[in-house]
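Input sequence (300 aa), recorded before submission:
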Amino acid sequence: MPDAHAIPVERARAAFLEACALDVTTPKPGNVSTRSPGHGMQAAQFLASADASLDALFARGARVGQRILDAVTRTRAAVGCNTNLGIVLLVAPLAAALDEAGDQPMSAQAWRAAAGDVLSRLDVEDARLAYRAIALANPGGLGDAPEQSVHAPPTIGLRDAMRLASERDSIARQYANGFADLFDTGLAAYREASAQAHEAAPETANEIAMLNVFLAFLGGWPDSHIVRKHGLALAQSVTLVAREEHARWRQTPLAARRPASDPQLDAWDAELKARAINPGTSADLAVATLFIARCIEGRG
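Predicted structure, token format:
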């Protein structure tokens, strides 16, 4: 990726919308796409959610908790369901870090450090606002927790609350580990795909990058959303299939490696949706990774 440069808010906003658009224009097994609706949702709802949450996520000077609550509130008003809670939870601290950096050059390493600083300062008020957002979004399979449940007022800061959930939730783990999965696993998969597909048409290269990142996450560890709704054993079985499909797809010649025309991935997508299995957390992590990548390389 290019040397460090400042990331203007206009570029960050455009990168966010592009990443959210790629989420649904790229067919990903089990996820909603423009080619394949599912789980009672359509691609248009995800695009509307990105537009609705944009101003809140990139509000100048806003605390992280307020960005989260305002983004979820506006999304709920626009589409009436939870389409982007995970994306909002991931992007809000990243956007706050860019906001604080201003005109300073931002490499991946610098952004990671800046986001870690933002996370270290999250307080009880951030937790209170984020809890309200989570309750409003009402994600499937949320249930309750033994400590700092979202169904009761928090008594610790948002990062500390996320640490308590980090063993069972991959979004919470990013708050605990400083977005390590995004900056390590996610960007590595993005760079691999970009290097291989640099001669492909831009639209195809973008979709190859998105699918490669998604499968890297889905094949890396059990998807939190699947675990919450269906249990760990089923989530682990999906992870094993993802590893096999990812390996097969990566070995496919580039000329034939099209996310929109892979019969095996299409069949797996249909099977997952028929069983109401949605790898939503892996998709959220992929969107946040694409957002970071687009900002850093100056696209968007």
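Checked by second reader. The CA atoms of residues 158 and 259 lie 37 Å apart.
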